[in-house]
Amino acid sequence: EKEHDAIRAKFHILVEGTDIPPPIKHFKDMKFPQPILDYLKTKGIHKPTPIQIQGLPVALSGRDMIGIAFTGSGKTLAFSLPLVMLSLEEEKKMPLVRGEGPFGMIICPSRELARQTYEGICVMAEFLEKDGYPKLRPLLCMGGISMQEQAHVMAGGIHLVVATPGRLQDFLEKKKFNLDLCKYLCMDEADRMIDMGFEDDVRNIMSYFISQRQTLLFSATMPKKIQDFAMSALVQPVVVNVGRAGA
Ligand code: ADP
Ligand code: MG
């Protein structure tokens, strides 16, 4: 415990909540498959950033989480890697069949962010597949891509979705997704999402998800509005807050 607190202090990581999983200082101690470690190395990513040191163990543990860290601090990896791992586990339990999935979803406030997040996951999936792991099928769900194309990918079965709120709501209303097995829901840039007026949309989106899920919320700032929202939407979350001094 003392050792964990020392690591948190060193990296300016503030935590709130009960039974908080220990921080982990090295990727190699996080039980990732070798191709994921290779992927990180190729990207020039050698050591986890503070939000990753504490956020990855929390997200991988299945706990609800609020992750607060400044822009450029590596939040994307902190919520993408756990969903890739979850997808692999599901695939190992039972191979995906046509029309099945998703097991998890990441919601981003803009198309640009959704695309970046999706592309990062696709590269991880390539590294895994090259190394003999099952092929993961992600779906990018957003405006600007034809519905037909998205429906085609979906029909083949999908492990995970990266979406923007507008197109996602559209799909949910039309019952295009089966969310019975979708147990990971992450909202990126929650502050921006709320600023852009998506709060009601996000609440509506959440109502489609099973209650037995893991919910994660990431943000650069944590104004009162987001805090209230998070407390009403998450269950016993672990709050991981990295100050600027942690840079
Ligand atoms: P945020 O979402 O917190 O603003 P990003 O996840 O977009 O930050 O990451 C910013 C940049 O840092 C990206 O180019 C990403 O590849 C890189 N990055 C992420 N994690 C690490 C790390 N542990 N070490 C070095 N670079 C990293
Ligand atoms: Mg980000």
UniProtKB/TrEMBL annotation:
<feature type="domain" description="DEAD-box RNA helicase Q">
    <location>
        <begin position="25"/>
        <end position="53"/>
    </location>
</feature>
<comment type="similarity">
    <text>Belongs to the DEAD box helicase family. DDX41 subfamily.</text>
</comment>
<protein>
    <recommendedName>
        <fullName>RNA helicase</fullName>
    </recommendedName>
</protein>
<feature type="short sequence motif" description="Q motif">
    <location>
        <begin position="25"/>
        <end position="53"/>
    </location>
</feature>
<feature type="domain" description="Helicase ATP-binding">
    <location>
        <begin position="56"/>
        <end position="240"/>
    </location>
</feature>
